[in-house]
Q: What sequence folds into this?
């Protein structure tokens, strides 16, 4: 019974770390760095927030593909040959989106740290 407690704690820690640690091969940039990236027309910009969040406050270069639709729409609407820069409200959903894109075979993925909450 004592071992079961250790296993549950270990699984809980693993789950938390898995959500926090950035995906391997994903570049992390600040919102200040993003301002320079927006000038590059060869990059794809994806906002993974909900449509209502996106319509409330957005960066015009970003296309809205909600996180829950990303797996289905990424293959049709994004090019694997171009860099994809992902943003959300705080950086957590975009982190998850970055992992999804990497699993789908996108090689150049960038996450915006702090998300729209840090954008001003």
A:
């Amino acid at each position: 019974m004592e071992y079961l407690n250790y296993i549950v704690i270990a699984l809980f820690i693993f789950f938390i770390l898995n959500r926090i640690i950035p995906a391997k091969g994903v570049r992390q940039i600040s919102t200040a760095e993003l301002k320079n990236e927006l000038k590059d027309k060869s990059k794809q910009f994806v906002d993974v927030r909900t449509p209502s969040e996106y319509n409330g406050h957005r960066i015009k270069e970003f296309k809205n593909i909600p996180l829950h639709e990303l797996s289905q729409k990424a293959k049709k609407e994004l090019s694997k040959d171009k860099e994809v820069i992902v943003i959300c409200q705080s950086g957590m959903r975009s982190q998850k989106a970055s992992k999804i894109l990497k699993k789908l075979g996108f090689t150049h993925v960038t996450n915006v740290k702090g998300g729209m909450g840090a954008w001003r």
